[in-house]
Amino acid sequence: MPTFPTTAKGFPANFLWGAATAAYQIEGSPTADGKGPSIWDMMSRKEGAIAGGATGDIACDHYRRMKADVALMKSIGLQAYRFSISWSRIFPEGSGRINQAGLDFYRALVDELLAAGIEPFVTLYHWDLPLALHHRGGWMNREIASWFADYATTVGAALGDRVNWWMTLNEPSVFIVCGYRDGNHAPGLKLSVSESLRCVHHTLLAHGTGTQALRAACPGSVKIGMAPAGYAKIPDTETPENIEAARRSLFTVSGQSLWDIPLWLDPVYLGRYPVEAPAVFGPKWHNPSDADLKTIHQPLDFIGFNCYSGVRVRAGAQPAPANGAGATSLGGGGTAVGAAPEDLPYPHEHPTGQLSWLMLAPDALYWKCRFYNERYGHGKLPLVVTENGFCSGDWVGLDGCVHDGARIDYLHRYLRGFKRAAAEGIPTGGYFQWSLMDNFEWAEGYKPRFGLVHVDFPTQTRTLKDSALWYREVISNHGHDL
Ligand code: BGP
Predict the structure, then answer these.
(1) From the alpha carbon of 22, which atom of ligand 1 is closest?
(2) Which terminal Cβ of the chain has fewer Cβ within 10 Å, N or C?
(3) Which helix (H) or strand (E) element contains residue 448?
């Protein structure tokens, strides 16, 4: 545990520094010990679906190298490790029969972490739906809320005595939009907006039933949250008008893309869909029942969010629409005042990671914390960065080291934004670097490298990058020198 004392300027004493991974991206061993197939096992076999024809069949071979990988985490000084459970290791047919060997793997991992003094953070769902459930409609089928609850009950009962921190879903907007509407992620469907909206609702419902199930299954008090995605909105300059424009842009459903944050987070934290949603979607909108909204709106213990990038926003020349969209800081539904927000495009040459969506936007962490705290947390729930990271084409140099200076600078700048939030009195609980090690980056294959640890995939050799050594220092002085 950190020994650095709490100061008004830094992170609280119980703040945890960690790194994150996900099952399909690192484990490999897709059929070991009775595991059933997932939609990503299917997707990665589809001709042309994944860059370089890659699959997660071996990935980082973590299923077989788990102990050595925990030792690696310890050598970096990690205080927490966020990983996901592969649903189809536990339920090879998606529901019904439990595969004890699958649970045993994660129990062994948790034991290993605790013995190394590392706090486990468990994500129940990081995109690898059991294929058997896909054949029963997957996220299109409302029954998934009860399949997910059964899965949460089983995992909670197996690990809840030793795992305090839980996340139900990772980036629901990404797995629905990319997987069901755009088709570039598993299961590769291209549904209509109306059908996709049903998936959105089932996803949120599963978050609610999963949260209830975890609370019932885990002895003692556990901390439950989510790990949603989404671009931050950053005021171009910090004038009151631009700040309000950024807030409004962040919290408005402005079109039918399904990416807008309040579509996902307002039901979870406020118990209702955004007021403008029925008008934006017109006849494609399905009115939810009060009972469903109540299920979705479970009390949570922290505000988790993944944060990679952000868009700059300024107050435009036009007045804001009069439908209350986005509304002021206090949770939407208010009368619109002021200017309509204008998102500002980055110039073509703006710095990015290896993937073009990863635009350098260092204030992203600060503004997400500030706006989420205002609208959803009200100073009562700690903000936890469940992912933040950078992808670059790293390689092992002639000197045997991996000199990833761009990643260090990226993390340093973003962490300063997070520290500013803490210094302004916003409660903070932890920070997870994505990712512990280079891994299978979904449709992009193995080329984009996000790790603190370099993985040479043919030999599975691990090499700590310079960023891992830098992060070790950050952890040891509890962010004091950032
Ligand atoms: C994670 C994925 C990562 C990376 C990241 C991107 O949850 O597992 O591999 O793709 O999300 O975040 P975003 O989708 O928000 O851009």
Answers:
(1) 8
(2) N
(3) none
| 387 carries an active-site annotation | yes
Query: What CATH number does residue 378 fall under?
Result: 3.20.20.80
Q: Is residue 54 part of a domain?
A: yes
In this structure, the number of other CB atoms found within 10 A of the CB of residue 138 comes to 23
The residue nearest atom 8 of ligand 1, judged by CA position, is 22
Ramachandran quadrant class, 445 (left: phi over 0; alpha: psi -120 to 50; beta: rest)? left
Distance of CA 374 from the midpoint of ligand 1 (Å): 25
Hey, how many other C-beta atoms are within 10 angstroms of the C-beta on 105?
21
In a domain? residue 394: yes
Q: How far is CA 349 from each of CA 362, 405, 409, 416, rounded to the nearest angstrom?
A: 16, 19, 18, 24
* Beta-sheet strands, E only, within 331-468: 339-344, 383-388, 428-434, 453-456, 461-464
- In single-letter form, the type of residue at position 18 comes to G
> Looking at ligand 1, which atom is closest to the CA of residue 127?
8
Residue with tokens 């927490």: 80
207 C-alpha to center of ligand 1: Å?
Answer: 19
Query: Strands 165-170 and 119-125, how do they pair?
Result: parallel
The binding-site residues of ligand 1, defined as CB within 6 angstroms of any ligand atom, are: 22, 25, 170-171, 174, 229, 306, 308, 357, 387, 434, 441
Phi-psi group of 380: left, alpha or beta (phi > 0 → left; psi -120 to 50 → alpha; rest → beta): alpha
pLDDT of 18-43, one tens digit each?
999 999 999 999 999 999 999 999 99
AA identity, residue 229? A
Can you give the residue range of the structural domain that contains 461? 16-476
What is the tens place of the pLDDT at every residue in 295-325? 999 999 999 999 999 999 999 989 887 655 5
Cis peptide before 435 (omega within 30 of 0): yes
Among 468, 385, 386, 472, residue whose Cα is nearest residue 421 = 385
- The residue from 171, 244, 276, 441 that is catalytic is 171
Neighbouring CB atoms inside 10 A of 290's CB total: 9
The backbone torsions φ and ψ at residue 285, rounded to the nearest 5 degrees and listed phi first, read -75, 140
Phi–psi pair at 430, nearest 5 degrees: 175, 170
The CA distance from 170 to 82, in Å, is 11
Of the residues 112, 119, 387, 441, only one is catalytic, namely 387
Domain contains 1:
no
Cα separation, 259 vs 257, whole angstroms: 5
In a domain, 10, yes or no: no
Could you report the per-residue pLDDT of 102-131, keeping only the tens digit for each?
999 999 999 999 999 999 999 999 999 999
Domain count, the chain: 1
- How many whole angstroms separate alpha carbon 176 and alpha carbon 229? 12
